[in-house]
Amino acid sequence: MSSAPTDTHKTFLADLARLVGPSHLLTDPAKTQRYRKGFRSGQGEALAVVFPGTLLELWRVLNACVDADKIILMQAANTGLTEGSTPNGNDYDREIVIISTLRLDKLHLLDKGEQVLAWPGTTLYSLEKALKPLGREPHSVIGSSCIGASVIGGICNNSGGSLVQRGPAYTEMSLFAQIDADGKLKLVNHLGIDLGSTPEQILSRLDDERISDSDVLHDGRHAHDHDYVTRVRDVDADTPARYNADPDRLFESSGCAGKLAVFAVRLDTFPAEKRQQVFYIGTNQPQVLTEIRRHILAEFQHLPVAGEYMHRDIYDIAEKYGKDTFLMIDKLGTDKMPFFFTMKGRTDAMLEKVSLFKPHFTDRFMQKLGHVFPAHLPERMKTWRDKYEHHLLLKMAGDGIEEAQRWLTEYFQQAEGGFLRLYAGGRQQGVPPSLCRRRRGNPLSGGACRRSRRYSGAGYRPAP
Description:
Uridine Diphospho-n-acetylenolpyruvylglucosamine Reductase, domain 2; disordered C terminus; quinone binding; FAD; cell inner membrane; oxidoreductase; FAD binding
């Protein structure tokens, strides 16, 4: 299949340009490349990339694509690691249209911030920022927040692998489009909000944010995974607490993985914990981590907020190849990261046309530049890495901090390994600040974080 425009679909492209405006339609392969290439892998051809500016425009673009029998790829930040946001190869039987939702980035707080209505392009970072003054936080406070990942993208893929208390991203309340048995596009409003009866009425009211408290219904449908705590505590179950494509977590938009076009989701938010603490656990025996996992999940009164497992090899990889990203976040803050990743994508697309530059030039350049700076990890962490092969970063909150401190102290009197308490706010760095808590004064030796806000490592899956 060729993505070059022909007479047979020039009319279709003209229709798209009319719907969104010529400046919001890309067809030049050089300009569409960054949208056709995955964050980590995956790449293919596409007829066009479309940027609707309203939900009503999105609805009309979808209808045009369905009528023209095009393959539709919904894409937000294109930060996915499993090739779900881009074409994968060039052997499709029809032309592909990528619909980018980056312009659809509104959010609307409900019930004084206890719930949120997120649009297709709403990012985790913007939601976190909106909730912070209210003392609340979104379901997912994870590594991809700092690179512009979208809220709806997380719902569609049940994200949140390291989250123990809240589990996978999930909701039973959403607004989405699907193709019915007759091949027609149908808009389904299961938001639990009275917005009218026709697609035009529903989408226009959302575009204008004409939502009153009386329109919002509370009918018992869930806006997060209420059952996860029970499942994750059942450490002797025959099945894992969570796994990919778990049928119990597939509900309309939740876990749909691109099979629906999602216009909005309604989600719960959560009180932000004022006291948080990370315990950095090290051991050379995997069985020790198994015992820790089983005891904490089954016996602790307070579940961990999150857990991140990291092997010594991953530590080395992160230390070497993640230094440039760490320094950018630490010096510039997470709010600048989406912009830099956008610029990186554009630069990569431009340089790939120049034979002088090797593939992934920007990554190589930034990594080499990062090595010019002094070591960013404290010596105590390097000693910890040398001493232990297996590492677990365990984030506790509230009264769970003292509970974990007492039990870990007692446990490691007889078990092989040890643990450190980590704080944020000091000069030493290297610990994921999303896993650290703020503290005045000097941090304990063993590492601390400053402004770096996120960390991405191998996900700790609390499964039997």
